[in-house]
Write a structure and sequence with these properties.
This protein is α/β, with parallel strands linked by helices. Helix content is 43%, strand content 18%. The protein has a seven-stranded parallel sheet, sandwiched between helices. Helix 1 (19-34) packs parallel to helix 2 (47-58). The longest helix is centred in the N-terminal third of the chain and has 16 residues, at 19-34.
Length: 182
């Protein structure tokens, strides 16, 4: 069993085109709080990011946001978190997210979400950490990315063990089971 005390969520500061993205994020937030895990995330109060944080907070859970100073106004920093850590740049944000988290999950998002996901996957590939990494494939959002990852593997640009670093599910309960959380 994996000891997950803190889970880092990578996701969009936009809501996306389908209300299911925000709804799924909010429900994931409830689940995180109910499992007594601390949420580590990007610090915004809008979009999918805000939904996850609001879900945790509504259930009385702990939420730590980490946001670069230049994004405080652009991403509208959440003002009701347990703690908001303002850092100088994106590199410090990702370093702290890594240090403070026991696992990582990507929800729907854009370039920033993918960049965070792939950096943490690369660190795992290089054996810099052994923390679980997952994709919550809400409404098939990541289907084409998963297909591309399978192509990378098939074309021998991704080893078997490295492909297996990424845990994928369309259910957050199932994802946490695959992480080893009971």
């Amino acid at each position: 069993m994996t000891d997950l005390k803190s889970i880092c969520i990578f996701c969009g500061s936009a809501a996306g085109s389908d209300p299911i993205f925000v709804d799924h994020g909010f429900k994931l937030g409830h689940y995180i709080a109910e499992k007594n895990m601390r949420l580590i995330y990007g610090g915004a109060k809008i979009g999918v990011m805000g939904a996850v944080a609001s879900g945790v907070l509504e259930k009385g859970g702990e939420v730590i946001g980490i946001i670069p100073e230049f994004l405080c106004s652009k991403e509208v920093a959440h003002d009701q978190l347990t703690e908001l850590i303002v850092v100088e740049n994106m590199h410090q944000r990702k370093r702290l997210m890594h240090e403070m988290s026991d696992g990582f999950i990507a929800l729907p998002g854009g370039f920033g979400t993918l960049e965070e996901l792939f950096e943490i996957l690369t660190w795992a590939q290089l054996s810099l950490h052994r923390k679980p990494i997952g994709i919550l494939n809400t409404n098939g959002y990541y289907d084409l990315l998963i297909e591309f990852i399978n192509t990378m593997h098939m074309e021998k640009f991704l080893r078997d063990g490295h492909k297996d670093l990424l845990i994928i599910s369309d259910s957050f309960e199932d994802l946490f089971l695959k992480f080893g959380l009971t």
